[in-house]
Request: fold
Amino acid sequence: MSGLRQTTSRRAARLGRLAALVAASAALAALPAMPASAHNYLVSSTPAEDAVVTQQPGTVSLETNEALLDVENGSIIQVVGPDGRYYGDGCAVVDGPTATTQTQLGEPGMYTVNWRVVSVDGHPISGTWTFEWQPVDGTALAEGSDEPGACGGTPADSPGGTDESGQPADSTDATTASPLDAVWIVGGVLLAAVAAIVTWLILRRRA
Ligand SMILES: [Cu+2]
Reply:
């Protein structure tokens, strides 16, 4: 009887070790997904949030923590005045972690910047900030436009929709096939392999 009990407890210990192995393997499989799933995040903006601007800034820009993807139709920075008009064409030029648009401000007051850029993993990120425009006397003021401009669109929209001509945008592939998807697939395959091995080991012990 004591021999049987010993065998049972040894088997339980072995199953415990297997469970620990499964947990460790799952953790290892999930590990590579963590850095890849991190999106670029905003580091700074110019003008800064809530800044009071008194001279024509010429440009509005934002900087993220790492290089952005320069995807066609992917980057938009809209500068919207207190009158709801658009100051600039919304087109953003990407240079490394920075995106910049040209602007000439008009009516004094609170300006809202709506932006969308493409994160390093291929996913769009977007946001908004405001600053105050108090031009010094004699500053030339722009008229603005009631249309969003050449790069138009709504920053909240994801790239890869249709452009003004109704044609699918070229950025579709870059935004749907993310490297992160591949990481999850590899992780899933690894987990399935571990589960198969564990199942086989347990069945072999029982036989
Ligand atoms: Cu992402």
